[in-house]
Amino acid sequence: MTQTSKNIAIIGSGLVGSLLAIFLRKKGHSVTVFDRRPDIRTIEFSGRSINLAMSNRGWKSLRKVGLEESIREIAIPMDKRAMHVYDKPVYYQNYGKDGEAIWSISRGILNRRMIDLAEEAGTQFRFNEKVWDVDLPEAKIYTGETVKSAWKEYQFDLIFGCDGAFSRVRHKMQRRSRFDYSQNFIDVGYKELTIPPNPDGSHKLGKNSFHIWPRGKFMLIALPNIDGSFTCTLFLPFEGDISFDRIKTEEDAKAFFETYFPNVRKEIENLTQDFFKNPTSAMVTMKCYPWTYWNKVALVGDSAHAIVPFYGQGMNAGFEDIYQLDELMGQYGDDWERIFVEYQKIRKPNADAIAELSYRNFMEMSSKTADTMFLLQKKIEKHFAAKHPDKWIPVYSRVTFSDRPYAEALAIGDEQEKIMQEVMKLPDIESNWDSKEVEKTILRLLDNKKAT
Amino acid sequence: MTQTSKNIAIIGSGLVGSLLAIFLRKKGHSVTVFDRRPDIRTIEFSGRSINLAMSNRGWKSLRKVGLEESIREIAIPMDKRAMHVYDKPVYYQNYGKDGEAIWSISRGILNRRMIDLAEEAGTQFRFNEKVWDVDLPEAKIYTGETVKSAWKEYQFDLIFGCDGAFSRVRHKMQRRSRFDYSQNFIDVGYKELTIPPNPDGSHKLGKNSFHIWPRGKFMLIALPNIDGSFTCTLFLPFEGDISFDRIKTEEDAKAFFETYFPNVRKEIENLTQDFFKNPTSAMVTMKCYPWTYWNKVALVGDSAHAIVPFYGQGMNAGFEDIYQLDELMGQYGDDWERIFVEYQKIRKPNADAIAELSYRNFMEMSSKTADTMFLLQKKIEKHFAAKHPDKWIPVYSRVTFSDRPYAEALAIGDEQEKIMQEVMKLPDIESNWDSKEVEKTILRLLDNKKAT
To answer: What is the pLDDT of residues B415-433, one digit of tens each?
Structure first.
């Protein structure tokens, strides 16, 4: 169904804002993107970014507007984890079946490319223009220098809030009655660090791996960039025995890396400089509802559902929001009220599911990686899945390599977990874990589930 | 320990704000209370109020500053529920043991009295003065006509946010990183209605009862006032078959009352007038953390922990916050950082517990009152508690008539629930519910708990 051309404002020029602009331009709408920050193409990156891992849902959305190829150019496939366990040789875990990979992309580089593409598609960008207020029923926005300065008023037909976890648009919706909202921070922070390329421009570590140095309550990860460097992220508790709180001097930082990450210490050349130049950032799970206001305003991406980054799905979920919106625009044409109602109804349970899965991954990493029974359980699941790939698709694969709803992945994962709890109670499971009996038990439990 | 006199601002002149002012004046502090609304002593009440049920925790706090007697004058004891079940004669349920009662007080009348008392104690009130911004580290507040008008700056030593569920002070704290926050609305709204007194000034219903007309998904309650009237509250879903949404005309409202509340229809003389004059209000559970900012700012009462009203503990919990603060002021003198840290550490789990208990009461009322097994369980508990008052104190009594922590009441209640789930599995429990065997089973299960 075609749509009548509307005058649309998007607040936020991040990844979701600029991709949404491209989709809306394809439908023939007039699109203006506001951002309180300067044009990211004209400034240095923030030093507070975790590299993105684009997976199936992200690519699917890009494909829908013909951008897949253009973005592959700035992405590096990672088909496995490289596990740098303390005092052991590196070992590898494939992410999926042959050829399945997630793709490392620098957030800054991707954002610049997306803005270029949106601009080419006819989007108007207004950088350095902060939105102070939104009139929801009238779809008006008010921008200005400060809260007290003279404000400029803009009238639109529709407004999309793509302004992230601390969205101004949502903030306005939140002051209304019957708006559910929550923000919950985890007690772990993160910091960006860099491994520069070799002098010849090549990568210092295997470039097709997602590198992980798991250390229980904290960990380091490294994702490759196309310039030969790696963007590393140190996840570490804010407070406590081993924490950001305890690293106050260059000596502290060096000692911390010598002790826990000796095999990578020398790669991070500007370690102490990065450490004290780059900010320590917090991570939040943000949920809200409703996501839309009548046929006037809708939240898309992090502004509607910010999640912790431990499943690598934040951007993918935001891009999938846009894919869904686009489907509904095709279905319902000018009935924006219907589009918005269906959009939030379809997406909300999926956003909640990926929030839950991401949080669980954080909990697993911080409390279960040292639990031998947990590791044994994962080993049994993997063993069984390899033998019966049709009967046991791991949750990770459902989330990362399929486009089935996140909520379905969560529900099936919970079923699998129940089965595994039964399996773990089997006598001598530690020695029998790869036996025929265990395999039969799982098959029987799977059949039972199907029967109910 | 004595305290050095501080210059203190309280935002909000409600019940918690005015009681806190009285406590702080007793300690010799200089106190200014700001409120964006006019002086409640000079205006009509809002018509959106549920009568208060003051119970033990509220009285205990008032007693500590010598106000108990003065407030008893405007309160009416209710020692029982009067249950107006559809098509049956009224029956009664005592709240506790002999002499235990909760006390009905009009929120408006109590608030006026508290402001009088705070003023007599030397508090300065600044009504009609809206706080637009708070500088947390500097303890400065900014007030003014509008967001754009010239603001007035005030410098204080300490600021208390007693500005309710939609607190401006908390709102400022919420914009900081690592501040946990949630607001969740229930899908039931409420509306204030009035049963006026008889022509001779007497009450139309028994005045020492909390009157309830339970109707499954909705209900009406009536609490006595000292002028002979009753303040009624209709709790009803916002949307659905029987809902506020479906009552659009005077005829709708009359028909609704004729159908579901025939025995009280004629008492609510101005029913349709009240119905369409008074607003329909929403109910929210609001949680946040931290509650304090260094040694400068603290949230007290609803601004820190708004709860749904189904346990009658909102004001009581807020008054208990103040009691706790006062204890800590006595203990730690001028160490306000310590006072604030301990205050939030002690109160937060208890605020979460009463939020949970209040929400569960709502769920019970709306989904379990028609469940015969649930009613049987309640009957067994009551029967057992009457025989063994030392072994089984109902959660309601712990919350309402004791001053033990809310969190303890919740934990013990959960233990009791586990025991009852075992009991309800006994064969023929429907016919054996008052047998020796059931009694012995409960005693045994209680002993088991103690042993673990």
So the answer is: 999 999 999 999 999 999 9
Contacting B with CB below 8 Å, chain A residues are 147-148, 166, 174-175, 177-185, 238, 282
Which of A1, A15, A298 is closest to A157 using CA atoms?
A298
Which of B148, B178, B184 comes nearest A185 by C-beta?
B178
Nearest chain A Cα to B144, which residue? A148
**What are the chain A neighbours of B237 within 8 Å (beta carbons)?**
none
Return mean pLDDT, chain B: 94
In chain B, where does the domain assigned CATH 3.30.9.30 lie? 73-105+187-282
Domain A52-105+187-282 in CATH 3.30.470.20: no
Are the beta carbons of B136 and B172 closer than 8 angstroms?
Answer: yes
pLDDT at A97: 82
| DSSP code per residue over B36-51 | SSPPGGGS---S--PP
Lowest mean pLDDT among A44-48, A411-415, B52-56: A44-48
Chain B residues in contact with chain A using a Cβ-Cβ cutoff of 8 Å:
147-148, 166, 174-175, 177-185, 238, 282
Question: Residue B117 is inside which H or E element, if any?
Answer: helix B107-120
Tell me which architecture the domain covering B7-45+106-184+285-361 has in CATH: 3-Layer(bba) Sandwich (3.50)
Q: Please give the torsion angle defined by the CA atoms of residues A268, A272, A277 and A279, in that order, rounded to the nearest 10 degrees.
A: 80
CATH topology of domain A7-45+106-180+290-361: FAD/NAD(P)-binding domain (3.50.50)
Contact (CB<8Å) B185/A166 = no
**pLDDT at position A452, please?**
61
What's the complex ipTM? 0.86
- Per CB-CB distance under 8 Å, the chain B contacts of A177 are 185, 282
pLDDT band for position B452 (50/70/90)? Answer: low
Question: What is the SS3 assignment for A272?
Answer: helix
CB-CB under 8 Å, A184 with B177: no
Closest by CA position to A233, among listed A279, A289, A180, A175 = A279
CB contact under 8 Å between A185 and B175, yes or no, is: no
| Segments of chain A assigned to CATH 3.50.50.60 | 7-45+106-180+290-361, 52-105+187-282
- DSSP readout, A198-225? PTTS--SS-TTEEEEEE-SS-EEEEEE-
Residue of higher predicted confidence among A262 and B21: B21
String of DSSP letters for B52-108:
EEE-HHHHHHHHHTT-HHHHHTT-EEE-EEEE--TTS--EEEESSSTT--EEEE-HH
Q: Average pLDDT over chain A, rounded to whole? A: 94
User: Could you give the C-alpha distances from A207 to A80, A215, A228, A400, A428, in angstroms and in order?
Assistant: 10, 22, 8, 20, 41
Distance from CA of B180 to the nearest CA of A (A): 5
Residues of A in contact with B282 (CB under 8 A): 177-178
**What is the interface size between A and B, counted as CB pairs within 8 Å?**
38
| Helix intervals (H) in B249-393 | 250-260, 271-277, 302-305, 314-332, 336-367, 372-387
Contact across the interface for B282 and A177, Cβ inside 8 Å: yes
Q: What is the CATH number of domain B73-105+187-282?
A: 3.30.9.30
Indicate the SS3 state at residue A270: coil
Which chain A residues touch B180 with a CB distance below 8 Å? Answer: 183-185
Chain A nearest CA to B181, separation (Å): 5
H or E segment and range at residue B413: helix B406-423
Which ranges of A135-179 does DSSP label H, i.e. alpha helix? 168-174
> Is A182 close to B179, i.e. CB distance below 8 A?
no
Please judge whether A179 and B166 are an interchain contact, meaning their C-beta atoms are less than 8 angstroms apart. Answer: no
Taking the C-alpha atoms of residue B162 and residue B12, their distance in angstroms, rounded to an integer, is 5
DSSP 8-state symbol, A388: -
Where does the pLDDT of residue B253 fall: very low under 50, low under 70, confident under 90, or very high at 90 and above? very high
pLDDT in tens, B436-445: 999 999 999 9
